[in-house]
Amino acid sequence: MILDKIEKGVLIASALIMMLFIFSLLYSLDKRSRNITECLPYNKTYEKARVEKLDDKTYQVFMVAKMWSFEPAKIYVPVGSDVDFFLTSQDVVHGFNIAERNVNLMAVYGNVGQATVHFDKPGVYKILCHEYCGIGHQFMEGEVIVNYPR
Ligand code: CUA
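^ thats the input. predicted complex w/ dinuclear copper ion below
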């Protein structure tokens, strides 16, 4: 019957459109994956504030936010570094924003947020808490200090 043929055509066409849609979605996700922030399964090691050097240009920062400071408060890395930030909170919800870098995370107790940041210019990059967290909120800050290697 002629109707069956039309129906089949419509089905095939919509299947193709769906595939195109899914393909373009995956494609755009892949393109954006580098600077996308993500959540990781939580464990207690994220509560120990520290900086770990993986190699000369790769660092991991385990950042703990608490009322009203970031720990570690100062982070020194050489120019050209890629820094993985793992962020959690010891108490209430805090914000995490690095000036001039496109980073915007929330620090939540029992959760860890992750972002990778590339520092290609020397300077002092302010870290600010952008979520109101009590009386000391406006003083809650840290610094990433990017130097030329010695
Ligand atoms: Cu921490 Cu505002």
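The mean pLDDT is 88.
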